[in-house]
């Protein structure tokens, strides 16, 4: 009987302890719920050390109004990785190199280059005589070979040519809006200058009409000026040459200008 009573006593004690622990747990749960309700009712405050003030942005509600999202500024710690530079030096170097490359290409392709003008020789000479006034009239057709070294078209705005014989001007010719030279291209420009050998040069009439002489060559000095325009830039090239022409008969010279 004594052993049975002791067993009942130990079981009762354990049941009592278990019920007490359950009651304590229930009390703890109730206390936590009460605390949460109290915290929910208690306004959000910022503690400055001495006094506390209600948060002006959330107005004690613990949340930020939607209409004020774009007006607020978030504070990010200095150690945040989003503030750490990521390959900044590499990007800066690549940007500088890219800008230099673009500037170099622009300068290379747009930098104005001189248009080369070369003498293509005399293509044709037509002669007729004024027997009454002892004047020799000539129509001399010359050729200029122009080379454009630019990467854009060049406009030949004007061409002025003056022909002299023994320091006497015997002919002048001017042309406007002559031609357009394509990028990195060449152009052959023909122009005709009318010459007149008379007045103080009337003695040449006898020489040019002399039948005993087969070739009546005279030397003339030709000064030619050409004006170009391209991308807002204007340039001028001058060419001075001495030409042999036959004043006694018509002549046509077929010359390979590209070889010249």
Question: Which descriptors apply to this entry?
Answer:
39% strand; alpha+beta; 3 helices; 260 residues; 10 strands; 27% helix; disordered C terminus; 4-stranded antiparallel sheet; rod-shaped
Widest sheet, order of strands? 7-4-3-10
Alpha-carbon Rg, integer: 52 Å
Task: Report the count of strand segments.
Answer: 10
Question: From the helix content, strand content and strand pairing, which structural class follows?
Answer: alpha+beta
If you average the pLDDT, what whole number results? Answer: 79
Low-confidence stretches: 42-51, 254-260
Morphology: rod-shaped
Subunit organisation of the chains? single chain
Largest sheet geometry: 4 strands, antiparallel
**Ends apart, CA distance between termini:** 143 Å
Compute the number of helices.
Answer: 3
SS strand fraction:
35-45%
Helix content: 25-40%
